Amino acid sequence: MRRFFLVLGALCAAGLLSASGQNTIPNNTRDTVPQPASGPPVSDMATTGKVVSSDSPLIPGDLVSIRIAEDREDPWRTVVTDTGEVEINVLGSVKVSERTAAEAATIIRNYLLKDYYHQATVEVKIIKKAQGFVRPDKVNVAGKVGRAGPQYFNAANPLKLSEAVIVAGTSVYSDLKHVQLTRGGQNTIINVEDITKGGRTDLDVSLKNGDQIFVKERGWVY
Asked: What is the pLDDT of residue 41?
């Protein structure tokens, strides 16, 4: 009897080993686990807002991000204008149309080194490809910010007041409780600190073309 159980155990073990070798479970009727789908092609990425291939030539309407490592600030987003240029904050504009992101980074770097920077490490990424060029809306941010100048947006990529202020870059010397929004000649003071830190998203404002934003300087910093 003991010999019978030993033989039976050996047969069972052999069966289990065979099943595991086939990566299946005996009597399991479920389908095998499907392989994960591959990522979308570049053309699909262009419509989802993900970063697309850096080899794609820039054209008017492309949404790009630009980062200058030496500034130690987050990258900012801008749109290639209908003249094929991108604006570099308040330092002017550089023509980048028909260039790849890597080539555009080199062009911007050379422009900065010519008059403004001793050293510049520039990174350009294409965030979204243009789907038929439409002139973007534009607002201007000025005052006590690190990156004053224009910001671009459109209906597909709207821009809030708090977002524009954050992108412009603030410090402890920026008075975020009294940010001035000028629209149609009318000035409105908005507490951006309540929006960003207090969760008062109801106070935020969707920006419109031509809006002017001014961040005041704080009088005292403790």
From this structure: 35
Burial (CB count within 10 angstroms: exposed 0-12, middle 13-18, buried 19+), residue 96: buried
Q: How confident is the model at residue 2 (pLDDT cuts 50, 70, 90)?
A: very low
- Residue 126's Cβ-count burial label (10 Å; 0-12, 13-18, 19+) is buried
Q: Give the residue extent of every domain in the chain.
A: 42-132, 136-222
Helix or strand (DSSP H, E) at 124: strand 122-128
**What tens digit of pLDDT does each residue of 118-129 get?**
999 999 999 988
Collect all residues with Cβ–Cβ distance below 8 Å to 25 and sequence separation of at least 6. 19
CATH for 136-222? 3.10.560.10
Distance CA 159, CA 140 (A): 12
Q: What pTM does this model have?
A: 0.52
Q: How far apart are CA 32 and CA 109, in angstroms?
A: 52
Q: If you average pLDDT over residues 144-170, what whole number do you get?
A: 90
Enter the tokens of residue 99: 């260039």
| Nearest residue to 204 via CA among 157, 151, 173, 166 | 166
CA 205 to chain CA mean position, Å = 20
pLDDT tens digits, 53-77: 667 789 898 999 999 999 888 898 9
Tokens of 49: 């807002």
Domain topology for 42-132: wza like fold (3.30.1950)
